[in-house]
Amino acid sequence: MVDFESLSDQDYFKDTKITSRLHFENISKFPKNIFLKKNSIDSIDLLELVNLDSLVNLDGLEDIYELSGIMLSGNKNLENILALSNAKTAATYKHVFYPNKQYTLVLKNNPKLSYCQIVPICKMLSELPAQKFIVQGNYGDCEHSEALLDACELVDVNDDLIEHCFFLYPNPTSNYIYANFCERINEFEIFDESGVLIRKGIPNENGLNEIYIADLAKGYFLFRAILKNGKPITKGFVIR
């Protein structure tokens, strides 16, 4: 567990072993890209980021394997959580406390966060009773739970489908990204971290697609494959 009320030494965090829970709270000058400096991110399953004024995105958390609980609250500049897109949900959920009640999912008072309909969050919403999640005070499709539930209807939360119907590599990458689709994929789209569509295409008949991305800026991107039934499945990738 990492639980810092203040943070001044990034090297200390870099050398700290994380076992399951990552908690940062009330840090006005949260170090930029600090998660990119950490090698044991994949062991996290409980994520709590609260009142971090300078937190803009979650880049560096792409390797989280599964999540049992999420609390993102009071982060006034948080815009992008796509780094969590590849995470699965745990077989058993855990609790976060807000303020003194037990929840599994808290997305509250992140006024710039407009896109939350990623697989782990949508799956939690589909499986949790209403008293175990809070979604309010965000923006766009994340503004409240009803809006997010509607947006999640277009997201396929079937982990087996995501794993066996859509392969994306290498990740991170620099010049090309290769996408291998099953026959159920109708088209694909690539979005930058602000949600702008920058690539669109139809898969090759053999299922393997080589996509040139060296002309794009470095950063985090969302690759969305559209099934023949119209539902999207998504994965994130990084250009370095």
Q: What is the secondary structure topology, with strand pairs?
A:
Layout: E1 2-4, H1 10-14, E2 21-27, E3 46-52, E4 66-67, E5 69-73, E6 88-89, E7 96-97, E8 102-103, E9 105-108, H2 119-127, E10 133-136, H3 145-152, H4 159-165, E11 166-169, E12 176-181, E13 185-192, E14 197-201, E15 208-212, E16 219-227, E17 232-239
Parallel strand pairs: 1-2, 2-3, 3-5, 4-6, 5-9, 9-10
Antiparallel strand pairs: 7-8, 11-12, 12-15, 13-14, 13-16, 16-17
Keywords:
mainly beta, six-stranded parallel β-sheet, disordered N terminus, globular
Structural overview:
- With 240 residues, the chain is mainly beta.
- It folds into 2 domains: 2-152; 159-239, Macroglobulin (MG2) domain (Immunoglobulin-like).
- It has 4 helices and 17 strands.
- It has helices spanning 10-14, 119-127, 145-152, 159-165; strands spanning 2-4, 21-27, 46-52, 66-67, 69-73, 88-89, 96-97, 102-103, 105-108, 133-136, 166-169, 176-181, 185-192, 197-201, 208-212, 219-227, 232-239.
- A 6-stranded parallel beta sheet has the order 1-2-3-5-9-10, covered by helices on one side. It has a 4-stranded antiparallel beta sheet with strand order 14-13-16-17, with no helix packed on it. A 3-stranded antiparallel beta sheet has the order 11-12-15.
- The longest helix has 9 residues, at 119-127.
- It is globular and about 55 Å long.
